[in-house]
Design goal:
Length: 252
């Protein structure tokens, strides 16, 4: 028996990195995965790796409320339920605070925070009707500690963390478990893109590894394993928690 047998999991940001690893792992654990990403080519690649019985891809840019509403509607139309919502999609930029313009800030908040807000707002009533469910919101180690050149990103992920706690309290009696996952530096295309923005990407990557007491970057599969645990029935008492998975980086 798989840990997620007979469960429908809506996972955002499945095109690469943690989201892709989670989609593969959740499907392996018995879930039917409704994967969402704005990159259709990446979504189709993932589709080719999984059977149509365990995975369906939906292209969406979750930066708007309308797109979030449509995503939930499409998932429910396909499967009639949502047992797990894994809000994983996110973006990052590396820029000085005084150079962060309104467009950049709005995009950051829309993708990293507002999509989580709107998807939770659409899914929670359905979970109430079903009698329960699980929501995993991706925050970050940078929701807990700070880093120069990441002011907007830190703010967006801090908002996710606060939202998670508020919703966990509000819906605890509805058998809806809501927790936040806070990854540290993970070897994903998004992190490599951050390194590539520097004058010396190789040195920047090495400096990133130096911040990790374990001596390496995390792997997407390692975060997916923690997400699987949160999605399963095992952590039944875990509610409103902030699960930091960062190779001890934040306790330096």
């Amino acid at each position: 028996m798989g840990r997620l047998d007979n469960k429908v999991a809506l996972i955002t940001g499945v095109g690469s990195g943690i989201g892709k690893a989670a989609a593969l792992l959740f499907a392996q654990a018995g879930a039917v995965v409704f994967g969402v990403d704005r990159d259709e080519a990446a979504g189709q690649t993932l589709t080719s790796m999984l059977s149509s019985q365990t995975f369906r891809f939906f292209k969406a840019d979750l930066s708007t409320e309308a797109s979030c509403i449509q995503t939930v509607q499409q998932c429910c139309a396909a499967y009639g339920q949502i047992d797990v919502l894994y809000n994983n999609a996110g973006i990052s930029t590396v820029e000085p605070f005084t150079q962060t313009d309104a467009l950049s800030l709005d995009r950051m908040l829309s993708v990293n925070f507002k999509s989580v807000f709107y998807l939770c707002q659409q899914v929670i009533p359905k979970m109430q009707h079903q009698g329960g469910g699980v929501i995993i919101n991706t925050a970050s180690e940078l929701a807990i500690v700070a880093q120069p050149l990441y002011a907007a990103y830190c703010a967006s992920k801090g908002a996710v963390l606060s939202l998670t706690r508020a919703l966990a309290l509000e819906y605890a009696q509805d058998n809806i478990r809501i927790n936040a996952l806070c990854p540290g530096p993970i070897d994903t295309p998004m992190l490599q893109q951050e390194f590539d923005q520097s004058d010396d990407p190789i040195q920047s990557r090495a400096a990133g590894i130096d911040t990790m007491p374990i001596g390496r970057l995390g792997k997407p599969e390692e975060i997916a394993q923690v997400a699987l645990f949160l999605a399963s029935d095992a952590p039944s008492l875990m509610q409103g928690a902030s699960i930091v998975v960062d190779g001890a980086k934040t306790i330096l």
